[in-house]
Fold these 3 entries.
Entry 1:
Amino acid sequence: MKKIALATTALFMLSAGAASAADLAARPYTKAPVPVAAVYNWTGFYIGADVGYGWGRSTGIGANAAGLLPAPYSLDPSGVIGGGFIGGNYQINNVVLGIEADWQAADLNQSGTFANTIGTMYTYRTKVSDYGSVRGRLGLAFDRWMVFGTAGAAWGHWETSYALSGFPPFVTASADSKVGWTAGAGIEYAFAPNWLGRVEYRYTDLGTASFVNLATNSSELGNKVTINDVRFGIAYKFGGGAPVVAKY
């Protein structure tokens, strides 16, 4: 009887072990899923305002109406800028595509005295009154932070004035840039669901303008204006937007 009991027990244990092994083989090991945190969603339209400081370069050649007796010059107008912007973003993973338009009122000005080819002294003064742009944007988002680059078309209004030194009034030509461009980069931070702050650097080329004034026997052979600026802005984004799942 004792031998029969031992044999029965051994057989039961072997059967249980085989069943457990088969069960484990039928359920392969899998890692537990790693939770992925939701991050800020940059998709949406926004409107904002900015203020900053600009410094530029105004170069050209003044002459008489026939284009003779040239007096080349180079000025560095600078001053405060401020304006607004409007745009929209669309986020794909951590890539943010966007388009934006802006306009800046400006007070960039400088004057200087330069000589023509026979030594006659002329005073030149350039004042940039406003400029704007329409641009594409490409950003990389890291939750509430985004770095971006931007480039597109630009236009602006400035005037360069001319006078014999000591003999005002100035002869003024208002210039309207027909073709220009701008490019820059910046960083944005979403400090609240609907509020964005930014710092941005931009370089803007407003093109070249010329004129001939027979009444004053004067001409401009090509006044070129470029601007560097740094801006600080704040924007309101419409719609908080559902958070996106980070995949980076």
Entry 2:
Amino acid sequence: MAEIDPDAALMLRVKQGDAAAFEELVEKYKQPLVNVLYRTLRDATEAEDLAQNVFVQVYKFADRYRVEAKFSTWLFTIARNLGLNEIRRRSRHPAESLDAVTDPAEESSMPRQFEDRRNVSAPDRLMNDELASKVEEALAALPENQRTAILLFKEKDMSYEEISEILGCSLSATKSLIHRGRETLKDKLKPYLKTGVWNES
């Protein structure tokens, strides 16, 4: 019998009321969730709130949890659904989110994605900032499925199989989404990258 996913084992402990196991899962996955949600919603505060909501849902429905896939697959499926709900809400009420999406003041609470600026010279920092901005713009312009597939692939090094489960599409469709997304990003970012190869981690 295959060994159980360690995170799934923790979730089974949560199901039995083990608060320490829940804290361990929160500690491990909070930042990856915030990273993916931020780059979906472009709002750091909303990403933090939604990540917390994901864990609320995890705890709330712990008694229904079944070990049918890796815990991370289940977790990011919940996160994607909540993210899509938020995007739909925004499309119905765009004025509510307009300032938050573009407010540079939010940058201070944005999860750090790039080099530690304390060790970067001023000209290099300017170039890094511009590249970071262009990467974010290019990602934001991708169709939702492509963007989510690429973020999951980069953020958690998930397999194509896991990503296909989260997206609810076939393995071949998932590979195609990631390939097309990468090609689009490479084309858009070629002027900013010497090699023309996208690798923002």
Entry 3:
Amino acid sequence: MATVTLLAAACDDGGSGAGTAADEPLLTDQVSFTAARLGGGEFDAASIQGKDTVLWFWAPWCTVCRAEAPDVVEAAAEFDGSVEVIGVAGRGEVPEMEQFLADTGTAGLDHIVDGDGAIWTQFGVAAQPAFAFIDDSGEVEVFVGALGREALTERMQALAEA
């Protein structure tokens, strides 16, 4: 059973970007879902089991998501091969999501479409941006809000070293 810890502060609730620990951690049996990939094909979460992974939850209209996109790309490049980064696009239409990739230079990352919000719900994400840090044992920590390059890199380093 994977533990999901929620930390909160997001752009659509007026958050400052600084996360705070949730009162109670949430529990989930496993990371399990399938979704369409932006650009075609299907993604199966089974492909990340046993791998250190970061899910980046974003919306195409979110200005904070757009601003942090370069940090996400740089961190993903730094940890390429040791921590996988997957964008989880929601709260928009596919053409808007594709435009976000083109506008932000994030097309080199793997992105999936969460059109009905089921993946966001599985991870307890109600606002964007958010990150789910999944270690190779399946433990999950969710942070809601922007992290910035330094904090994102520190969390990814901790995943890679665990």
